[in-house]
Records
---
Amino acid sequence: MAEGLPATPARPSLSLPETLRLGLFQACLGCLAVIFAGLLNRVMLTELGFPGLLVGTSLAFEQFVAPSRVLFGQISDSHPLARRHRVPYVLLGTALFCGIAVIAVPLIFAVGRIFHQGSPGAIALAVVALGALFACYGLAVSLATTPYLALVIDRTNEQERSRAVGVIWCMLTVGIVVGAILISLSLRSLDGIRDPQLLEPTLSAFMARVAIGVMGLTVIATWGMESPIRSPGVSQGGSREDGVTLRQAWTLIRSSRQVLIFFSFLILFTLALFLQDPVLESYGAQVFGMAIAATAQLNAFWGVGTLVGLLVAGVWIVPWLGKLATARLGCQLIALSLLLLLLSGITASVPALQVVMVLFGLAAGIGTNGALCLMLDLTLPEVAGTFVGVWGLAQALSRALGKVIGGGLFDLGNWLSGSGLFPRSVGSYPAYALVLVIELLVAIAALLMLQRVNVRQFRDDTRQSLAKVLTAEWS
């Protein structure tokens, strides 16, 4: 260890049952992601007739608040609650985003009524309220997830981390699949119904049940996962409070070119996975003629593929090829999957779309496992919360850009179609094709950026920088 660094806390290993239990929180996040990124944007776009740019921008506010992840990570490192650094923040954040989820449905339908019947001033206020709702939701998610990932780092060493990442992100995908199935089963009675007065009460009751379940499972997931510190100001095995301030953290981050390279890769990689996110279910509805329950199942097909990809990568591909090569393979497969997703719209075959979504999920699982293992390996244990916040910022920023750019490209494609550039016989397909073509180019850019990541140089540069930052502070 470089001179001047604080002692790294001892890490009690996570057994497989503990890892599965801890992964319940990720499963809950996956379930809510399907509802917020899938069901609600489908309802806003198709049933309520919101413009694509409005939907994309509103959803993006969840990620526009991503810089808070760095702050929440540093606070988690430095300021324990109830004599713990991680779990209380996870529970507090979960309670907040569950409460916000419950009020999201009535607010969205209220905005829909104002949007179609209100004055321009009322519409502007409604749009601001919608953005504020998703911004608050994003802050709550950041407050919960940043300490959660830091807890995974606290509880694992480098050898154990690949297995833990595979299991926990498999649980995320299980949550996505379960969420899609819950939507399909619970909302099957809404197939073909577009009347907001019939949709709102059913969706509100469904969201309330989901929020209660998520809060209960999070308590189960985190119970006993973190031992209390022995006394105020003294962490387990080391002194986090004497670690790094937020100002020092930014100095450390700016001091390494490899941090910027990997940060850029994470943005491009995540953008390549989620640029189609705001329009995917509407793609199924308008190009393939699928009902609400059927488009929700697209997330299940994607989730099953991702689950298999995560498992295959964690058990076989990462040990065989290594983390960097696995991430590279994932980027290549994602690009191929996006090409197939683009071509499937030409035939408008629902079975073909379902198969492609499984393949896309498989590629996403392989790439995600490799990228996450790299991410956690490139996180210094001495400042785990802060570094996880930085990586979370990269991913959240790209999710935000994906929603805004995806919605904006969709509107641009519709405008081009309406201008007579494309024949009327092709319908709305060109608008979706424009989104997918740009996403394919982003996947290729992520692959090129990954070629510039050097793991050894990253570790050497950041450790030396951390030692200099702390030495300068103490001298």
---
Amino acid sequence: MKQERKAALPRYGEYNCALKYLVEQGFETKCILPPPLSRRTEDLGAKNSPDLVCTPFKTTLGSMIEALEAGADTIIMVLGACRLNYFGELQEQILRDLGYTFDFINLSIYNTGKKRDILRALKGINPRCSMVKAGKALYEAVQMIEHLDDITSLYYQNCGFDPTGTYPKIYRQFISDMYAAQNLAEIREGYRNASRAFAEITLHKPQDPIRIGIIGDYYTVMDPFSNLEIEQKLADMGVEVHRLMNITNDMLRNSEKNKQAKIREFSEYSMGASSTSDLWQAQNFAERGFDGLIQVKSACCMPETDIMPVLANLSQDYKMPVLYLTYDTQSSDVGLTTRLEAFYDMVEMRKKVAH
């Protein structure tokens, strides 16, 4: 393996397993994993960020700092559908002002729609890499993402009803297998093992469990640390938790055009970023008779703020209560638990009355 670079990407839930696979297997470049997100990560990011920037900016900046401390000499910044496209330039300047020396590959700069610019970005990671090998690794990394999203969905829908308490162990082993995978066969084996282990557990799930759907901005809703483990907290209360917002559902299987057509009754135009996806998912949950909906958003995220009146209309039409949660670097774990318990009690009482 050529190791001229030691590249890193900021932490993003557990998707770094697929990013690591792509960098190492596709571009033959060493991938440095930043430490798991922590309060220190947030503090580092908040200390060196503009006050009114959205929370994911601060978290990813803190993760970049920790990656550089861990030995990375190259930072790769992804692109996105909102201000994420502008994160890279500002974060690079902040890091250089802090005195770090590194190479910075900002994929947003190459997001022109032209194939030659995409190739330039990829060659920037390793100029001698094989595009055939990189393409093969990309396909396999996408397979890993699909398996990751599938197992994660199964976990949060069912872990609250596992009397043996082994669901978390199976899930942790699956995540470990994905980070360790060196080829497609190992990716598929890890997925099969987790699926089989889940299937062997007899769940104690009521016939009509409380079902709550979760929507929110791309980063905060998909990253357990950033949302203070909201899915696990709900599952521990005996809730069947559903989250359609993941890379597989939002970017691989459903087009923006189709989603916008589906929600036209509530919103004729896109409000940017994850707004269309969130409304499409909220309507999906409502039509399936879910007992409640939770919107997870970061502070200063305008698209998520813009859709709140639309969610209120949808809630009224479908008689589905909505809990709005805003996260920043000062969010309290205790405060979140209190609000979730109150929401659960309300949803449970409504369900009993309905029956």
---
Amino acid sequence: MSKPLSQSQRQRLRFIESCLLWEGLLQRKDICEAFGLTLNHVTRELTAYRKQHENNLVYDPEMRAWRIGPDFKPAYATGDADEYLAMLHAYALSGEASVMVTAGPTVKAEALPPVAGKIDRAVLKDVIRGLRRNHGVVVKYQSFSDPEPTERTLWPYGLVFANERWHVRAYDSRKQRFSDFVLARILKARRATESAAIASAEQDRDWQTRVAIDVVPAAGLSASQQAVVAREFGMRRQGELWCWKVSMRQCLVKYFLLVHRLDLPAGAEPHRRIALRDPKLAKVYAFDDD
């Protein structure tokens, strides 16, 4: 492995090290199945890896597998739990799809299926070109404030993935405001004839402003329950209170509150384990129907 590694090689080596770190054992067939490689290919790659990191792998002839070495030092994996869990999540979502991108460990895991909505390819192309070339896009958009689709000219400048959907952040000439538009709700799109942008991202206060949201354990939890919620959400102590301080663009706050069910008033969600430190934010950042 003296020559520079390709991205796919690095991915495989990160997979190998993560499996060793968390499972302690790795068989050649695991790598073959995960990446669609032959046994000979995997053997060559493991041999080259051992030359560079001889203390990381120990062969167990009885198990016919590689075990983690006593002096193991990862060169490609971080060793963080999030890295391993991300592989599990990606693999659970991928099912039997190609694993060159979503290779997973050997531990079985399941995940809720993602939203399966489709975005029109022609629409996406026009929106992306509007983003790249700084021109307007005339769209036919189905909102939930209008019973039928309406035509409006958008001036897009950013994409946002939130609530399992892709949105485009843009200035809406029809309503003369900045807003988010779900890409799957854009039925048609074409380039606008106007040559100059009506508005830009620099004028969008909600895009330019960053907001810090304080999330705390829900009221009524015991001290032990609060501590475990704090660990689950990465909260830190602020005096006597656990707090998860999250910073994001102001236009994203409503999605954050929705995803964590913080958009509902206190007491409306009995099984919620977290709450806003400032409950008034749920009204300040409430969703509209567009």
